[in-house]
Amino acid sequence: MEVRKLVTLMKQCSTVKQAKQIHAHIFINGFTFLLPVLVHHMLLRDITNYRTVAHYAYSMLHHLQNPDSFSWGCVIRFLSQKGLFTEAVSLYVEMHRRRLYPTSHAISSALKSCARIQNMLGGVSIHGQVHVFGFDTCVYVQTALLDLYSKMGDMGTARHVFDGMAERSVVSWNSLLSGYLKAGNLDKAQNFFDQIPKKDVISWNSMVSGYAKAGNMDQACTLFQLMPERNLASWNAMITGFIDCGSIVSARELFDAMPSRNCVSWITMIAGYSKGGDVDSACKLFDQMNHKDLLSYNAMIACYAQNSKPKEALELFNDMLKPNIYIHPDKMTFASVISACSQLGDLEHWCWIESRMNDFGIVLDDHLATALIDLYAKSGSIGMAYDLFHGLRKRDLVAYSAMIYGCGINGKASDAIKLFEQMLAECIIPNLVTYSGILTAYNHAGLVEKGYQCFNSMKNYGLVPSIDHYGVMVDLLGRAGHLDEAYKLIINMPMQPNAGVWGALLLACRLQNNVDLGEIAVQHCIKLESDTTGYCSLLSSIYATVGRWDDSKKMRTGVEGKEIIRIPGCSWTRCNSCGPSSLLISHITFLEVLGVVKRARAQGNFMKQSDLLLNADDLDAMWEIKLTTGTQPPPPSLNSSRRGEEGYPVKNQEINHDVSLTQARIDMSELDAGSDFSSA
């Protein structure tokens, strides 16, 4: 085969398979001098599987009889362009060790890669070689150096490089401008922007985005109106700025005024609505999208998960896997899906998600493991959460916060406190979520003084307590009997207390039998909530406890003459792949539990009269069991599950103290085939 024909084939090469065939002809015909040309043409083609191309080109470099700088430079530039920055820097280092004279493209690509992976040491080392190899006046190399120091935040050196440039392109000006904006120096950035001789759309976008990120939307709008040319990035920067400032209405007006929109525009608005808790508007936008890609689905699934709609998140995840839609999920998808499962507090969903992750080849990294820690903790499997936590390669703020919160809600206050202290010792700054967890731990342990100290320490980290933090503190003080302090804390709150805060005070009044504060709390709850059944029931119980039966009856009757019906609380128990599936089995289950109740009475467990009034007219109707799938076996007559396995609670909300006492005294092993139904 002639050399000319091989060169023609190289220019037409579009796949790795074709490149290998040409490579074979080169060896067969002894035209090894054409190998660098093959490498060059192969890297110029827009081949989809660029990682395979990079690997093959790397192999060819090491088989060249006469290695040349041009071929090595082509591969380094290709790696950098495709985002393989670490590989690009490594190949440049190897090129230097082989004593090959680098090209300007090799050095500029290596500097660009160092900037992207924050490799300051490597960048400074290559900067020294710039002088050695005489690239001080090369505009490509100087611009790459400028970009390196700007991204690293070393604006002094960046300005020195800029001032020493013999020729400055608009890219050079924009690099230094971006550096000033990234450093938060808007005044210098504005002065420098005014000096740019030929501003392009990137220059304008940088300034608009800089002011928007700083929250100065007035100046951002002024610049936006002055722009001679706008692109999609200009509009998206303004929309993002309005959303970050909490002005979702202005963001939507700008979104509607856009001449055209891309996927980023839609996703930005969906994320904005999600941030504001407006799930319905986000859903409407999502439905209006003509083309939905992976990022769109990820944004909407995250919206559902972040706004306490886990079922909708899982339903949308199922939809994206349907044959008529099918979009391959990634790690971000599963992070949101795991978060949704954790809100359901059900490990059964996790088993299904885990199988899907295996199907799609998703490896459990630290990010996903942290989401899984949250799931295990909220499902009551704190031991499994600890195992994952200790197995993390790097424990960051999110991991610590999830673990601290998990220990807090599972009653392991001492463990939560130790984790919090360990986190601070590692110089990890806590956030609002961290404090929610540690305050919950202090609440469960009843440590009022330490809880107060922790609450007051939030200001040391520049954190402003949210309404949820105040709610936890009110609950902590109230349960400890400090009702006056709890009420004073509510009155002095910097924001308007919600029904949750007043409800915490009311529950504390129920525990401490404080009628006066209980009445105040109920009045506020009635103003803030439409469904006041639970609040009125609590106040009715307080009246009954202190012997004010007429008031108790009036409260139960309700303000409109309708009797208040309160659904009894229940603790869910998960059982091993079983559950009453028919009316007959449900009836047998009821009789079984009723028998346990009778035996509980025989042991001296009687409900207080006030509790009886609080929950139901008939004591026997108070008891309810819900059996679903899991590990704790019910009677053999109900299922064929394995024996000898321990059960675990799926959800254990605030339950009646008498129910807790009874549960502690009754051995669940009584629920066997020999139970005496007739005794009920």
From TrEMBL:
One of its GO terms (molecular function) is RNA binding. The chain crosses the membrane at residues 21-43. InterPro entries: E_motif (IPR046848), PPR_At4g14850-like_plant (IPR046960), PPR_rpt (IPR002885), TPR-like_helical_dom_sf (IPR011990). This is Pentatricopeptide repeat-containing protein. Keywords: Membrane, Repeat, Transmembrane, Transmembrane helix. PANTHER family: PENTACOTRIPEPTIDE-REPEAT REGION OF PRORP DOMAIN-CONTAINING PROTEIN, PENTATRICOPEPTIDE REPEAT-CONTAINING PROTEIN. Pfam families: E_motif, PPR, PPR_2. Residues 628-659 are annotated as: Disordered. PPR repeats lie at residues 68-102, 169-199, 200-234, 262-292, 293-327, 396-430, 431-465. Gene3D superfamilies: Tetratricopeptide repeat domain (1.25.40.10). GO terms for biological process: RNA modification.
